[in-house]
Design a protein that fits this description.
The chain has helices spanning 2-10, 17-36, 46-58, and strands spanning 40-41, 63-70, 85-86, 92-100, 103-112, 117-127. The protein is an alpha+beta fold and 128 residues long. A hairpin with a 2-residue loop joins strand 4 and strand 5 (103-112). It is elongated and about 55 Å long.
Length: 128
C-alpha cells in the first residue's frame, strides 16, 4: 500500500525528481518559518523548542536530516513572569536535507545581516 501511495502522489508532480526535491525543501522551510515565528520562548524553553521543530519536520515526507538552532543571545536573565520573547526569523538557523530517490537537497535558513532578512536558500544539490 505504501508503494501505491507514493506512485499515486508522484503522478501529481509534473517535474523531475530534482525539481520535486527542491519543492519539498521549500515547503519544509516555509512551514518552519510560518508555523513557529511568534511562539513564546525563553532560555528555559529554547532547547525544547529546537527539538520540537526538528522532530515535527522529521515526520514529513522525504526529510532525511534537520538541525535547528535558536540564537540564545537575545535572552536576558529571567526576572519575572514577563521575561520571555517571541521567536523571530532573525533567531532561526536551520539546515535540512531532503532525499528523494537519488537526489539530495540541502536547504538552509539564516538571518542575513546585509539583507536584514531571514533568508531561505538551497545550499547544495547532489545526484547520487
Amino acid at each position: 500500500m505504501i508503494e501505491k501511495r507514493e506512485e499515486l502522489a508522484a503522478k501529481k508532480f509534473n517535474c523531475s525528481i530534482r525539481e520535486r526535491a527542491l519543492f519539498e525543501a521549500g515547503i519544509k522551510m516555509g512551514t518552519i518559518y510560518h508555523q513557529f515565528v511568534g511562539v513564546p520562548v525563553d532560555q528555559d524553553s529554547v532547547e525544547v523548542l529546537e527539538k520540537s521543530i526538528e522532530k515535527g519536520v522529521l515526520t514529513q515526507p522525504y526529510v532525511d536530516k534537520i538541525t535547528v538552532h535558536i540564537d540564545r543571545s537575545v535572552f536576558n536573565p529571567k526576572k519575572d513572569e514577563y521575561s520571555y520573547c517571541s521567536l523571530s526569523g532573525e533567531m532561526l538557523d536551520v539546515s535540512l536535507v531532503i532525499k528523494i530517490e537519488n537526489v539530495e537537497v540541502t536547504a538552509e535558513m539564516r538571518y542575513d545581516p546585509l539583507l536584514k532578512y531571514p533568508l531561505m536558500y538551497i545550499s547544495k544539490v547532489q545526484e547520487r
